[in-house]
Structure prediction request, 208 residues.
Amino acid sequence: MILLAAKALLTLFVVMDPIGLAPMFIALAGNEPQEEQRQLAQRAVWVAGLVLLAFALFGPALLSYLGISMDAFRVAGGLLLLKIAVDMVFANRVRETEEEKAEASMREDISVFPLAIPLMAGPGAMTSVMILTAESKSVPGGLLVVLAVVVFVLLLTLLALLSSSLLARALGRTGVNVITRVLGVLLSALAVQYIADGVADFMIKALS
Prediction:
């Protein structure tokens, strides 16, 4: 259980990257009053939490309905996370397209889009939650552990958003990039492990 909790915490913290979200939040909501920023951050975390909860509880059933094996999803998820990790290492992480940025700039409420989706509950976070949920089945109380870690990381994200101006000033752009690169290296190792596990399971089932 401890190993599952540690793996879930490391994976979700790296993928959601609360520290990296701080300067993005300032860019999107920095001109808003403090009270409005607080409400935007809270709504974004609530929405992201509901999305991740839905993927944790119903994601495996969706894969089964579509005829997608967990091994295939683990390999696909590993490749996706590896792409995110490479972008993080080179400090070139793109969480939204230019069209999404343009749409966000015209919206008054940016809590759902782009804050909650895709900045918090993006493809990487959704994939990670589904993989961790599948792995938790072999651990007594594993699902509760994964859900508790999701809540904990979301609370850390909320704290980072609420203190984003102080965090950005303390770390600076260089500091944020350094932390992002270190987390990217860790995420790349986790991504390769996901791919290796998926391929190994494929091979075992093919030979059996």
The chain has one domain: 2-207. The mean pLDDT is 85.
